[in-house]
Amino acid sequence: MLLRTLYLRRRGSGPPDNQEKEKREEALPTAEVFPRAVEHLSSAVQYPTVSGLEPGDSGSKEAEKAFAEFPGFLRNTYRRVFSELELEFPSERGMLLRWPGRDSAEKPVLFTAHYDVVPAADEQAAGTKTDSGTEGAAGEGWLFPPFSGIVTDEGWIWGRGTLDNKIGVISLLEAVESLLSEGFVPRTDIYFAFGGDEETKGKEGAGRIAAELERRGLEFRFLLDEGMVITRGFLPGMRKAAALIGVAEKGYVDLELTAEDTGGHSSMPPPRTALGRIASVLAQLESRKFPLRMTSVVRRTLEHLVPAVSFGTAFLLSNLWFFGPLVLRILDRDPTTSSLIRTTVAATMAQGSSKENVLPSRASAVLNIRILAGETVVSVLQRIKETAEKENVQVRYLNQDETDDPIESSSIEGEAYSLIADTVCSIFPDTLAVPFLMNGTTDSSKYRRVAKNIYRFTPVVLDRRDVGRIHGTNERLGSEALVQSIRFYQTILGRC
User: Fold this and answer.
1) In terms of Cα–Cα distance, which of 71, 97, 59, 276 is closest to 191?
2) Rounded to whole angstroms, how far apart are CA atoms 245 and 416?
């Protein structure tokens, strides 16, 4: 046990040798300054490309206008990119760029991002001022209007999409524009796919793009999409930052629970109302969670973290064959890590009567379920049914065509993962690259037929507070983080 712990700590902790360091420095592109990048991301945020709004919703017409105008904004901003790369629109919500390389016989590479965003609820400015500058927690209300793109003196770019995921679109295009200005030509063809409906499952954006790429018979060496970030607080006592590179993705399904009754006046209720039966099912599902399980991906994650944690924690993580059950219990204490070791069920929506003194004749609730490897959409449905049917509650798919079984892990041994991990270490010193399980869903699932090796990573350093701003209030990005993101893409593109 002790020898294995020492081996794993040594394996990931040492600096690269001089030859490897020189190789990295030679591979770095020369352009390092992006004077207008902050302005460009700020401008991009000002297009309210909000997915999921129904006609008649507040802002729906504004969003429709923004979606129509956003591609034109990109073309006017990155003139060199759009004049030298091949551009096409497989759909109204999908943009595809091809950068021809020197060797067309080699498999191409695909980078993806999306420019749609989730709605920004509670737009009223409501933040606080502190001695260290402007603050505003994720739950305090918007400090600045969410589509203002305001840049503060402290260097923060504020607004919906700064983190999810206009940073991806802008960083990639800034990097390509910079490399083109140097006369750089990639070794192989590089494709860029930008979707406009990722937040509503990506059917028209990434779905249409992927179908077109498959129709052409393309197979990509690897794909890099948005994903997890670099964090310093993933596990207590971590001594290094960890770049969490998504190599696998949990499955996804939304289920609707429904119960029917005769209704009537609330002054004469039956022993159990329709809404009461729904509530009973929800209570049982929360108290009888899916079992904890250590998947191969999570096992690799923990072993890769060994060099970054205290010796005591490292001893546990290095010997999961013995301490696995204990580690599972420890991980289960925090919702962030618990989601990596079980299928999660979250009740997100519920509905009953439309009036306070009327018994519901029909009640319903929606379950959002993220599926761990080892389960499937069908097996999850069956388990939920077994609980619901005891309460005379029906279960059905909410959107059956938008379900996904867990996506198996991509290789962490080959060239593609090494390229991403090596680039992380080049741009973010003293950072450990760690394979990781994505518990959210991304557009990358649409490309499984054209790319076997799919990786999900957003090259920014965030603490837990800023991670909470993704899909929350007061979403923001530091200008320095934007430059690091651009340099990451600039570097990895230069090595493709």
Assistant:
1) 97
2) 12
The pair phi, psi for residue 45, each rounded to 5°, is -65, -30
Domain boundary among 369, 402, 435: 402
Residues 419 and 481 in one domain: yes
Q: Are residues 66 and 212 in the same domain?
A: yes
pLDDT in tens, 385-411: 999 999 999 999 998 888 999 999 999
**Residue 358 structure tokens:** 């009327």
- Catalytic residue positions, numbered: 116, 198
Whole-model pTM: value is 0.89
Q: Are residues 314 and 209 located together in one domain of the fold?
A: no
What is the number of domains present in the chain?
2
pLDDT tens-digit readout, 62-84: 999 999 999 999 999 999 999 99
Asked which of 402, 424, 448 is the last residue of a domain, the reply is 402
Least confident of 139-148, 324-333, 426-435: 139-148
DSSP letters of 213-280? HHHTT--BS-EEEEEEEEES-SSTT--SEEEEEEEEE-EEEEEEEEEE---EETTS--SS-HHHHHHH
Alpha carbon distance 128, 108 (integer Å): 48
Domain that holds residue 322: 251-402
Structure tokens at 477: 């990005």
User: 278 and 235 in one domain?
Assistant: no
> Among all chains, which residue has been given the structure tokens 């009567």?
353
In terms of Cα–Cα distance, which of 141, 390, 123, 398 is closest to 255?
398
| pLDDT (tens digit per residue) in 154-209 | 999 999 999 999 999 999 999 999 999 999 999 999 999 999 999 998 999 999 99
